[in-house]
Write a structure and sequence with these properties.
With about 700 residues, this protein is mainly β. It contains three helices and 58 strands.
Amino acid sequence: MHKKGQAATELLIILAVSIVVLIAIYSYSATSIAGLQKQQIVETAQISVQDLANAANDVYAQGVGAKKRVFYTVPTNVDQSKSGIEQNAFVINVLESDVYAGVNTCLLGSLPVDQGGHFIWLTAQEQCVFVGIENISLNKTSSYVTLNQNDSEEDTVTLTNNGTEAADIFLTRNWTEGDVNLSLDTYSFTLNPSQSQLVTLTYTSGPTASGTYAGNISVDAAFASGDENNSLPVTAEVLVSGGGVLAIFPATRTSNLMSNNIDNNSFETCNNSNNTLMNISFSDSGTIANWIDPISTITSLGAGMCKTTNYTLTVPGATSAGSYTGIITATDGTNSDEIEITVIVIEMKDCFNFDWSTASFDGPGKHLDNWTIENTCDSTISISQMKVRKWSENDLDNALLDKIKLNNNTRWQDGAGVTDADIWRDIDADFTIAAATSYSNNNKLEFNDNINDDYEEFYIVFGFSDGSSYTTPVYPVNDLDLPIVTLEAPADANTYDSYNTLFSYNVTDGNSGIASCELLINGASDQTDNSITEGITQSFTKTFTSNATYGWDVNCTDDSTNSNESGSDLNRQITINVPLQSTNFNFSWSTASFDGPGKHLDDWTIENLGSSTITITRMKVREWSVNDNDNAKLKKIKLNNNTRWDGGGGVTDADIWRDIDADFTIAAATAYSNNNKLEFTKKVNDDGEDFYLVFEFSDGSTYTTSTYDP
């Protein structure tokens, strides 16, 4: 007995120790998971702000008007009040800490910072980069005119609505009135989706105007879902007339060029005097003097005339990136003027853009295919070297890189394969990308074993022929992020009086494209869409067949087969409560009359007051035979001048339904007052006959008219 008690005590001790150990293990695991989740949140924010900063620097280096569309993700636990744009930095405050990335210039506009994925446009302006959603686009980046004193010039700009909602547009001049005035032919209008509007700008100069006048036009767009703001810089240069004045305009010109680039450009040389100017010659000075080819002399320039003067500028090879200036001076020996030329020499990396969003693995997972490379400038760039980095850190298959293909041509190959040591891989014969050209298909990294099964990551370093380089973001191979689905309409507990319902939603995914989305009705798949555009409103149209309350949701699957529904909206419901067709039907005898012989009762009114089509299936015509002494018979029923029932030799008004041929539908909010007829074999307006009609509709409901007493 003592031994049994001892054994029981020992068992209890063992169980107690085991429970303590299990609690400790669980606590450690929970802490580790929580720490990993926080790390992922911070990393998501870091990747987003860095991608935004890189894109802002790219468009600013390319010059005014350059733009780029960027996708970024705002993680959970974000403090929106502390996130957005701060002077020259993008900031996302997560877990009470700022995650930020600075740029090389100031930032204007606004940055959406609500949780989820967002597309944003970055546009280079004169001194800053504008950040914002761009549903409203302008066909030019600035307006510039030249005019004389006491003169007027016009310029035009076209605004286009690229969004899916109508927009109310409001234009505001930010312009100091005085020597030069600016007016617009319209200041507000509405743009429907895909619609454009031409706006005319009129500049008017006074008698004392001189030099350059600048401002901007604010373009404010109001959508149902929110506002959007943009700006158009506007400039007027007034040329001053006077005795013996030689003028060049514009006074300055700036070009963004790479080494070995040629810029063929021009300026206007003008004679603002009352006499002909002879032998106008040109000379150049400054750091770019040797870059400009000799400019031909203008032998004669008439009074009040201007001549376009062309010049050719070549940036020498191996010129370092930076800003270079020079002056072109025109003189006839007595009068002179000049234009200052600024050349911003950029490197090939400034024109290069890379995008992982189009990338995917082949079936076996040995090839990382179809990433995008792009030349955003107007000159050719040349890739001479590449490094492929990082994958071997987590790869358990010891995969080796054995081939790099660009535009489906092998540009580097190693038969034995290599690891991702920090060694340049020379690109065979260099790979050139023409101006404004991109390649999204058939760019490949080929390995000898699987490289998408062990949480491998990748980034590429591109080396260009001018010695500059570009490093891509890290590519997350094993995409564990779920699509973010947001239901837009209808709202929860909404009631519809129509069987046709539009379900709208939005979906984003920071790491993958969206393969498909499906509409769920009461938890079951109803229909699927395989052509999804992220970040904009998508929709399904569903036709119900009966009144009821239905639960609805949308489930989306990304290219990595991750699926997700809308989360907090899982219980969203809609009630279909379509009134009986007879409720929306209206009838009036007030328009009715008999024809001359009194055999036809014509032109009574039938009307659909509702928002859904109603359908007449049968009719009864009653009462006339009670007082009729002519033994008239009902021969035909016409609706909207078409025979819908034909009784042949005619019938009396026994209580029998007359089937309407092919059913007669009345569209929503539609009435027919003419050519509705009851046709009889004899007079039915001479013996005190009365009439009333009974209509039956496709939902089984009926409507009985008042009695017609002629």
